[in-house]
Amino acid sequence: MHLGQKISEETRAKMRIAAQKRGNNRGSGWKLSEEHKKKIGLANKVSVKKYFETHDTWSKGKHYKIKDTSNMHHTSWNKGLTGPINSRWKGGITDKNNLERRKFAKTIGQAVLKRDNYACVLCGSGKYLQVDHIQKWSDYIELRFDINNCRTLCMDCHYFITYGKKKPEGIMWGNIIIEKEVSLSVH
Question: What total of structural domains would you count in the chain?
């Protein structure tokens, strides 16, 4: 018998009788003894254990408790896996660094742009402006918020200062603070 094949009433009656003799209800399978069910359960446990011993899983054998499973489809995928128990935790340094960068952009970054008259100090361009730290942000933590350690550069000049070569065509690079050329009117 295959999909779409028409079955005669006689064949349907024979199939119905056979299913009733087996004691199943609409394809629920054979009736199994309790002993047989235990053997199947044991075999499944062994095969699952063997699988996880031979395959690298996402959790690397770590077991995490998810706090609230009642509305699992409404919660975040990493509910309960935040902070130190998350596998990607780096000790809270990322958040601190991001907060400092945002604080810098709003305060010192804007002051540097204003001081340099919204123009690149090397080429004079007013397009795709970025604030550059003369002494590196990562190496000189004490100079991060020193306005004298900063200057306004366009994207191309900043790339050249950082890598010592011309920026490839068609790529955007760095944290752009001012994207379009600013026209300053003198009063």
Answer: 1
Asked whether residue 99 is domain-assigned, the answer is yes
Distances (CA, A) of 30 to 2, 11, 16, 23: 22, 21, 14, 7
Residue recorded with tokens 């975040």: 76
3-state helix, strand, coil in the chain (%, to 5): 40, 5, 50
- Domain span holding position 151: 93-163
Look at residue 65 and give its three-state secondary structure: coil
Q: Identify the pLDDT of residue 72.
A: 45
- Is 130 within the bounds of a domain? yes
Rounded to two decimals, what is the model's pTM? 0.47
Q: What residues in the chain have per-residue pLDDT under 70? A: 1-2, 22-30, 46-80, 92-94, 178-187
Task: Round to whole Å and give the CA distance between 51 and 63.
Answer: 17
In a domain, 119, yes or no: yes
Residue 53's pLDDT is what? 62
Q: From residue 24, how far is each of 2, 9, 29, 186 by CA, in Å? A: 21, 20, 6, 90
139 assigned to some structural domain: yes
DSSP string across 119-187: S-TTT---SSEEEEESS-TTT-GGGTT-GGGEEEEEHHHHHHHHHSSPPPTT---S--SB-SPPPPPP-
β-strand partners of 130: 153
